[in-house]
Every structure is written in C-alpha cells, then in structure tokens.
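User: Assemble these into one structure.

Assistant: Restating your components, then the assembled model:
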Amino acid sequence: VSHFNVGLIGAGTVGGGVVKIIHHQEGFFTNGLGLSISLKRIVDKRKDRFAELPVGSAVCSQDPDDILKDDSIQIVIELVGGTTFAKDLVLAALAAGKHVVTANKALLAIHGPEIFETAEKNGVSVYFEAAVGGGMPAIKTIREAMIANDISSVKTIINGTCNYILTRMERDNHSFEDVLREAQKNGFAESDPTMDIEGGDTGHKVAIMASLLYGGYVPFEKLPIEGVSRITDQDIAYAKELGYRIKLLGIIKQTDGRGLDVRIHPAMLPLDHILASVANEFNAVLLEGDSVGQILLYGKGAGELPTASAVVSDVIDVVRNLESDTPLRISMGFYSRGNEIPLQALDEITTRYYLRFTVVERPKVLAPIAAILGDHGISIASVVQKERQSAETVSVVILTYPALDSNLQRAIAEIEDLDAVRKKTQVIRIEE
Amino acid sequence: VSHFNVGLIGAGTVGGGVVKIIHHQEGFFTNGLGLSISLKRIVDKRKDRFAELPVGSAVCSQDPDDILKDDSIQIVIELVGGTTFAKDLVLAALAAGKHVVTANKALLAIHGPEIFETAEKNGVSVYFEAAVGGGMPAIKTIREAMIANDISSVKTIINGTCNYILTRMERDNHSFEDVLREAQKNGFAESDPTMDIEGGDTGHKVAIMASLLYGGYVPFEKLPIEGVSRITDQDIAYAKELGYRIKLLGIIKQTDGRGLDVRIHPAMLPLDHILASVANEFNAVLLEGDSVGQILLYGKGAGELPTASAVVSDVIDVVRNLESDTPLRISMGFYSRGNEIPLQALDEITTRYYLRFTVVERPKVLAPIAAILGDHGISIASVVQKERQSAETVSVVILTYPALDSNLQRAIAEIEDLDAVRKKTQVIRIEE
C-alpha cells in the first residue's frame, strides 16, 4: 500500500471540519479501509485557527508554497473560496502535478474550462463533490451510480438559505424581509445575502451539474437566473390555497434540438411533489434517468461537517483511484471551452404559470385580462379573486395551462397597459 | 486501455434490461468514458429469451460453464435468483477468479459470509448495488459517499410491494386483502407475495446494509421481522386522524453497548416526516451520519431498468477499479462469519406505541386498561374512542409515551385477560 500525503489550504469552517473528520477517522482509514493517508500540512493566513483544531502531526504554516512546493504532497484540498486567489492556487497545484479536491462552486462554474484543461494537461484530477450540495452525494451519483442512464431532467433545491426563508415564510406567515432579517441574526443567511437569495449560488451549482451531465461546458454567465426576493407572503398564501408550494428550483432539461433548457427561478410545486416536502435548510436533487426513473438525493447542503464529509470522501476516492488511471477518465471528458453546450432561449420554453395581477376593484375587471390572455393563445386553468387588501386594489390570481413564454411576456405587457392594472404583475412558473 | 469481457447468466426481466442498457450505452462507455467492455456471452436455460434481446455480438447459450470456463471473461453478472443454483454459480465464478456482480439479496443475506470469504480467498470482488434498492445508489452511498461518517441510524422503506399496498389502502380506503388482490392482478405483487408482505425481502436488504455499515455479519435469521398483512384499513384511518402514516420500515440503530438494534416492522411516522411522503412503489433510505447529518436516497427499488441500471453501474465500477487493487479493499473487510455483530433483543427497545384495543362497548371500559398500562410504567399520550362498528365491540386507540417493549408486552397480556377485551390487540410502533 502506498502512502499519500494531503495538504489543506484554508482552515476556516469547512477546513476545520476536514481536520476534525480526518483526526476522528484516521484509524478507520488505516484499519478499516487499508489506506495510508496523512494530513501533512495545513496552511491558513490566520494563525489563530490552528490552535482550535486537532491538527495531529500536520505542520501548520501560512504560506501556500509550503504545500505547492512540497513534492511529497500528492493531494491538495482548496478551501479558500473565491475566484481569484483560489484560482491561482488551484492552477498552481495542478501544474505541480497534484490532484485537487475543492468545495469551490463559483471557481468551477466560472473558470471550469481553464481548470479542467490544466488538470488534463498535467495528468491529474479535480474532485468537487462538496461544491454541489455539500454532504449530499450529487456528483458521485451523476458520475457513477447513474452512469448507465441518459438523464432527461434534473430539478434541484440546492440553496439552503433560500429554502429556509421560503419554509419560514409559509410556516410563520411572515414577509420575505422579516424572515431574511431573522435568518441573518441566527446565522442562516450571510450579512450580504445577494449570492444566495438572487440565485447566483444555485446557478453556480446548476452550471457544474449541467456541464457534468452533458459532457460539455454550460457557461454560468449565460444562465437565466431569478432569485426569491420578489416572492411575497401573499404569493405563498395563494400557492398554499391552490395546493402548491413555492421553491427556488434549478432546472436542467433535455429538449428536442432546441438546446439544453437550464434555468434557475422560483417555481410552484404541487404539495404532493416529493420536492415540496424538502423543508428548511435541506437540499435535494431529483434526477430522471431513462433506465432508473426518478432518483432523489436529499441532505444538508452546507455547514461545517456535511461539506467537510464530502471533501474527505473525495480524498478517499482520489487515493483509491490514484494507482490506476481511472481518475482522469472520470473527471475529464467534459467541461472544455471548445465544447460549449447550446442553451435553449428562455422565451422558447412552454410551461404553466401563476399570475398575480394587482388591479383596481371594479366590476368586470377580469374580462379584459382574460381577453388579452386569450388573444395570445393562453388558456386559463383557474382564477382566484380575493377581497380588497387596501383601499385601492385587489389581487386577481390566474393559473394558466401550458403557454409559450414569449406569448406570455407579450400578454403581460399588454395587460399592464390596462388602466385598471396598478402594479407589476407577479409571474411564477409552475413545475409538475 | 485493457479490454474487459462480461458474461451474463440469467436473461429474464433484469437480465434483459442489462442487455438493453449495454446495447444502448456501448458507444458512451467507449467514447465518453474511455472504457472497453464487451458483453461476450449470455446464458439462460430458456432459448426463447435471446430472440427478443439486442444481444449484438454476444454469443448465447444454455450452459453456465460456457461462461465459468471461459478464461477471457473477467466479470460475471449473476441474475438467476434464488439461493441454491445461484449460490453454486457465484462460488464457482469466484473460485475461477472472476469478479461477480449480482442483484441477489437473498443469496447475500443468507450466504454472505461464504461468498465474501470465497471472493477474498480468490482475490476478486462481489458488487451488489442492485441487491439493495434497485436503481437507488444505497450501497455506493454507504461505501463511498458516507465513508467519512459514523452512521448512527438507518430507516428505510425498501419493499415496493408493501409500500404500494399501504399507499393504496390509505388513498382508496380499501382493505389489505382487496388492495393485494388488485396489486397481484396488475403485476405489482407476486402470486405468492409472502416474501414481500411478511417482510422477508426487506429483512434481506436490511441484513446486507447492516453488515456493510458495521463491518461484520448481521445474520438474516436472527432479525426480528414483522410484515404488513396484519395492518387494517381501520389502523390506517386512525393513523391519518392522529397525524401519522403507516410504513413498513427497516431500522438499524447503534446503541450504547446493548448490541445493534436491527428490526423490520410496520411503523407510524408523523405526516411531515420525509419518509412519510415516499408513496407507491418508491423506496427510500434515510441515513444519519455524524458528520453529514441526514441523507435521504429515494428512487424505484425494483423493475427491469432501474435494477439493470444498478447492475451496469457496478460493472463499470469493477472495470474502473480492476487495474488497481481497490476493489478488494472496498468490498471486503466485512461480512465474515467470525465477525458476527451482536443484536439488541427486541424486548429491550424503548419506543412509543400505537395500541388499538377491541372492547365491548360499556361505560368505564377505559379505566382498567389505563390502570394496567400505568402499573407497567406506561404513560398515555392520547386516546381516541370511536362509536361502535359492530353490534358488539368498539375500538379504543391509545398512543403511549416511550415505553420498554418488555413492559408493554406484559401489559398487553394482562389487558387481553380482561373480560371486556374481545380481540388480539393491534400494536404498532411509532418512529419520530
């Protein structure tokens, strides 16, 4: 059995978790799995972090070169985060012939082609289970368990902050702003929550999954992304009344020659949909394979130990594969810039819609709205009109049958020109 | 890249699915994964099966020796089923130095030690993803993704027939017998459904998972197993009214030195429990790891293509690992007869209970029941007493607080001696 040395760069929350798990499981790796692995060096710019960790025989220092230039280290764990310094580190590690394990979704979503091309050129591999869904084995399931399948669609709830906020809004009847403030106070949301609540984080993870699934490069910058900040407690209440629940979904669907349908937006799910029962900070990925049918993975997508657990399982996988030439075959073959996957334009999708119009309360206000929808070939499945909330206006909620997005956009523009319509229309797609 | 030949024994439903998937995915294996795999020979005693399959260049015949004695075949897929002929085949294949992929849960649960010892002696491995949960990657997740975790508990719904029956009983308000008859007519239940409905099939899968999880041998014959045939539509209706749903659960829990708690029985789950939303023929495994927290896997546990998909992913794994010595390390190290894991006695568990007493309708019938429960230290959490269903008797339903099983058994025996109690008491454990 060969011996493998690991270097860890970044000893913050997740990095600390990695140190703890390796410390706790070392005996099992040796005696249970017959693997010989040491955490040889830990680098972090903050010295004080080392004192709190069970670093064992690992040498701690502050210069990444202590790892990058150490020829006895074969595997580098990058947990620095961000897309600048981390990018340089990862490229340097790969260029030095080291395998890289990372949890950095932004880095892979944005600089994936460069990173994977560098890895390929240097005959090493990049593992990134922790980048997508933390402790939930989404990448392993796609790469290995579902390898005998064509995957026709993926629907995923993969941002814990958004899911926590939407769950609490429904449970407590609170506004988005109130729940966000509370979440920030309790550490469930960042002080700058933009990347989470506006869907960027979900977009990074979806771009990585789509790239992996379809053997090419799905550029993050080209994805249509809508976040959850525009969802009101009123929408959540209407959804519930109509038998639906609102979730921030990442969606990947194969189409017939119209490009890959990839998008991130809030969606209404029927209450008995398996994804509707994913609550609080939990994540889930629902994959549809041609052979296997539906598979759901569910688990904690973030946090110190769940994410660290995925990092450590990647290290074990690297070590298990290191003597064979399997790591290359499995982690490559996708994600090169020359192999960009064409995307379907958002206005070409056909789906059902939830529409909430804010109109002046007066008789026959519904008729012109219905007429305009009809003119654009949009059929109404159901209507709810409630008593007035303010002195002025009332909500009219319409669920449509499947309609082409471009038709819907045109209809909404016409409807918003009506004198009786007083606010921007709320539009939420329905997924079945 | 080396070339690998595969032999398939058994071309029935799942075997046919394997042939179809390999035919369909061959190009991807070669061009996408860079693996060179051929299905070289297919053996089945029924000649007529070959005609319906896209066998490609595979040679079809009826004698297993055509595979077992062919030195160019490195991997044997056993899909014969049963525990006699299949056992001889698997042992012969292993003795001939071939790796084995199987979906045969009964074989592994009952003859696991002999099979894994033979594999180890001959330096080959046994892969069995398809034996537990069909297309759901339970084994891979336990063996690889959760490798950095101590797993404290597993709860699983892993028999599609039972789950289908329980789902339909609740949905349609039908009796167990009626739904079973209908399921048999539609092909969702076997003509002899005993192995499914009495929990044996769940027991096989749970024995395999427990053995794998805790690095030893959990003998199937020693597991406490109760099936679902005693569940009535009345129990399902009471459960729903009280906010619960009844599922057949396989449970594995670590205890503090009292042995491993492994059992299979119907259980009441709160409606908002993630496992309560697993409906129809779907399966799920809920794992609790010390680092990762809860992970749920959900998917179709049976059927031609889901199961075949798992078999093919195992073949890919064998091939990927074949040049290194990883397969041994991963598939061995557990399951030897000398390493039997002690089990906790069922009467030592503490849990909450649903109790349904059938009593003569008369004033004060509840008092002596409550008194006996109290005498045995069992506290009542809630009581439902309904109007009489027949001329004679009425149901009294009690949910208890956590109680020791042996105390409960003694209390029930005393209660059934009461003159007012007219039938055997229905006892269902509650899981939170």
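Chain A touches chain B through 59 residues (CB under 8 Å).
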